[in-house]
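Re: Re: token formats

Sure, here are both.
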Amino acid sequence: MRVLPSVAAFSLGLLISTGALAVTGEEAQLIDSINVYRSTAQSCGAEASLELPPLNSDTRLALSPEGTRDLQQAMTRAAYPMVNVQAISLSGPRDARAAMHAIEESFCQVVLDPQFVDIGVSQEGRDWRIVLARPLLSGRLGDWQAEGQKVLQAINAARQQPRQCGGQPFAAAPPLTWNAVLAGVAANHTRAMANQNFFDHIDKDGRTPGDRAELAGYLYQQIGENITAGRDTAQKVVQGWLDSPGHCATLMNPDFRDLGAAYATDPKSDAGIYWTGLFGTPQ
């Protein structure tokens, strides 16, 4: 099979009209495959990716492979309020499995970029277009403490119900308690990610979540951390974690007792907005 790939990108657009294509079986299967790929750490180039929440399927991003070659013009017609977008074009794959293989070989950095939140896929014969985008922030957010408390509320609501995190079953778990020390640690790490434009559990000084908690005076038996980027409400953040097996397992872990959570924004960063949820079990 011969695959002819290409990628295009632009940022800071303003969109004004409507238009989208329906997602078919192969297109939906490719979105599912990309999300499975993102859900575990992957070796991509010289670095290993983090586990990432799934991308949301958005039909406004399902731009025809045979449509205009002007990506900005196409996005304007699609009425998607985006900040950043990248489009992958493939020619050759006969089905979603072959398309995914081509993406893993040539475009792992695009689909593993944590700034992207939404995805649209369209297929015409052996031509494919995969569009990944980050929307403009639409939520009216309070201060980081208020939004962190909303994360806590959403997590505790989720912990009230048994659920499957990937293939792992979890019973309902006790509610978590807000912890001011963990909240401060989460806030500092989130601001660092936003201001220094990185996305990782390990900070620029090489410290782990456990290191940061210990330095702040939180004596723990167990520490867990969930991070995400690009999502603009606490509810979207928690839903993204629930949809990701590893994040979900941390969130549902019955051993955790405390939580601190925060967000931070920086318009100069790739993702614009970052979130941290820091889970702890005190000694």
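Second one below.
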Amino acid sequence: MLACSNVHKSYHLGERDVAALRGVDLTIDEPGFYAIMGRSGSGKSTLLHLLAALDKPDQGTITLAGQRIDQLTDSQATVFRRTQIGIVFQQFNLIPTLTAIENAELPAILSGDDPAKARARATELLARLGLGDRLTHRPDALSGGEQQRVAIARALHFAPPIILADEPTGNLDSASSESLWNLLAEIALERKISIVMVTHEPAAAAHCRSVFVIADGRVKARIETEGLDESGVAARYQQSVAAT
């Protein structure tokens, strides 16, 4: 479902190049809820942007849902993201003047889909996410957790095989965060898709099937979380980083 091979990415800062990724290898071949975990500056956000076809690697290959996305043109990448990748951001990125259902159906409306079908699909998704009674509420009338659920419904609209989540609970309280992590795990299982979440929190990573530890621009380890709680994940993560 997702494979990175020897992925490198550098950025120009003044007169010098700064290496963000230094040969990332990563494979996900089964549906599930996965985490990419690392400290600030480790390269995890850069990797997520590459996986979302928002940028291209300097070297290496990235295959997602059977497509070499590192070879796509900008226009091809836009079309691919629209139907094959769902993206959930930390800041929700909802349009404040639109209702929950209007935000959830927006990708289909912008794609020229039948409005009635788009509305029915958005209604179904929001109901599944526990927002069946909040369809006509605008973002400022929703809690942070509810806003993030609307963003998830929007990401799921085209039933993509991959959802990428960038610190999705960074603006939520602990109870809302816990609820959202459980929800993402349920969605991955129900829909047989892969949800890949970037995080620095062991509590978040403990809800995932596997955790890819990234440090210094490389994937250093893969932690299988079965039988591990938050403290167990944290301990394994520290061992992985210390071993580099």
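The chain is about 35% helix and 25% strand. The first strand starts at residue 2 and ends at 13.
- S.
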